[in-house]
Design goal:
Helix content is 34%, strand content 22%. The protein is α/β, with parallel strands linked by helices and 438 residues long.
Length: 438
């Protein structure tokens, strides 16, 4: 039996394609510098409820994990962020997390109206003073709103941030440690014949009774990535908890698979994916097959689905699909390396010791990405971030345009690897697959 916690280290085997983005500083480096630091005890104040009653902060947060959301009805960034904060509240309140809003409104009527207009369900307090005049703001170090703090059961700060996505990421990790989940199922390491030799693969399968069948999801990693790492592990674990099997594998020249990276092309990765599809399709316990791809793996997944017969693939999910790779080849620039696209060399040196082969460039130059993918007409999901500097999100939007049964989720300020909150991105994909396949 496979037993493992859902708390997975975020820095494990992140695909190199997105490494440059992961070094970016976020808004906390500018706007959260004076917020209370982790381990600091929360100061106590007696404030007013919307009904005008006095209430101590300590009476609300005592003995519970608590999120304090500093905001004001006059703040446009707060109003923009409120739907996300409410979504996080609805997700974590059932797990015992308390939310408390502290407003820097100085007009009670406008504060009360905003609470009603936005249907805020969690407790609210205020000293009815603007932020610059508020002793609460000074004590908590609030210089910018919205700001958020996660407080532990002992009343000490766990996280101070101006980013609700960072808050959600931290809450996910804290709650996973508080309420660890034991997965029930099996894991199998195997090899499958691919385009350039053996492909290393991992199958996670839920507990099945004799003769029972379940869906299988293929997980296709990106350029220079591999099957291991938090993104696909989170999806695979969640699917298994819901009775869905998954297979993640290293493409040729990647990870533990055979072949040389310099010989890798998108067409031979499609061939790899086809071989994996043929393998899982013939497993007796597999009912339907779906496919997920991140970055270049998204291109491979979409084109594989388009090449197969209608109905062979029951669902497709693309995460930051890198259809830009064709335009990159035409421009003569791939992952920062430049070359003559009309007469490319035998190979181009990339980051580390990787070499991009001539065949990759020549095949990418005329790759019919959308033309091939368009043949797939089943359910599809595209997830992309507006801060993706590797693949602009408009490339994801085009998939949505060509697939009539698709839905798209554009995550504001998320990068190519969804590092702002990888749990949110993988949860969106997992829920789509569970909804579509079960």
């Amino acid at each position: 039996m496979l037993k493992k916690s859902l708390t997975i280290a975020l820095l494990t085997a992140i695909p190199l394609m997105a490494c440059a983005q992961f070094a970016q500083t976020d808004a906390d480096s500018k706007y959260a510098t004076e917020l209370l630091k982790p381990g600091t005890a929360v100061p106590d104040f007696k404030l007013k409820t919307p009904e005008g009653k006095s209430q101590k902060i300590s009476k609300i947060i005592q003995g519970k994990y608590t999120v304090i959301d500093f905001w004001a009805s006059w703040c446009p960034d707060c109003r923009k962020d409120l739907p996300n904060v409410k979504r996080i509240y609805e997700q974590f309140a059932p797990q015992g997390v308390q939310f408390l809003g502290i407003s820097f409104d100085n007009e009670a009527e406008k504060w009360q109206k905003a609470i009603a207009d936005y249907a805020i369900a969690y407790p609210q307090l205020s000293d009815l003073k603007r932020m610059r005049d508020s002793e609460v703001a000074k004590a908590f170090g609030v210089k910018w709103i919205p700001s958020m703090m996660l407080i532990d059961k002992e009343g000490k700060v766990v996280l101070s941030t101006v980013l609700s996505d960072k808050l959600e990421r931290t809450l996910t990790e804290v709650m996973a440690k508080e309420n660890p989940v034991t997965l029930q199922g099996t894991t199998e390491r195997l090899t499958i014949d691919g385009a350039k030799g053996k492909l290393a693969a991992i199958i996670q399968k839920p507990v099945l009774t004799e003769g029972q069948r379940c869906p299988m999801v293929m997980l296709c990693h990106g350029f220079s990535g591999r099957k291991d790492g938090p993104m696909f592990e989170l999806i695979a674990d969640t699917l298994m908890m819901h009775g869905i099997a998954s297979i993640r594998f290293d493409f040729n020249g990647h990870g533990d698979s055979e072949g040389d990276f310099v010989d890798m092309t998108v067409p031979n990765e499609i061939e790899d994916a086809m071989k994996v599809y043929e393998y899982v399709r013939d497993l007796r316990y597999v009912s339907d097959v779906a496919i997920v791809g991140h970055s270049q793996g998204g291109v491979v997944a979409s084109m594989t689905a388009g090449k197969l017969e209608q109905g062979d693939i029951k669902a497709v999910a693309l995460m930051a699909p890198a259809a830009v790779l064709r335009d990159d080849a035409i421009r003569g620039s791939t992952m920062g390396a430049t070359y003559d696209p009309l007469d490319p060399p035998e190979f181009v040196n990339l980051f580390g010791s990787l070499k991009l082969g001539r065949n990759y460039i020549t095949t990418a130059f005329s790759l019919p990405i959308y033309e091939t993918a368009k043949a797939y007409q089943g359910p599809a999901l595209i997830v992309h971030g507006t801060a993706d500097r590797v693949v602009p999100y408009t490339y994801g939007e085009r998939y949505h345009d060509i697939w009539p049964k698709s839905e798209i989720v554009i995550l504001d300020a998320f990068d190519h690897g969804f590092s702002q909150n990888i749990y949110r991105a993988t949860d969106i994909v997992s829920k789509f697959l569970i909804k579509t396949l079960k």
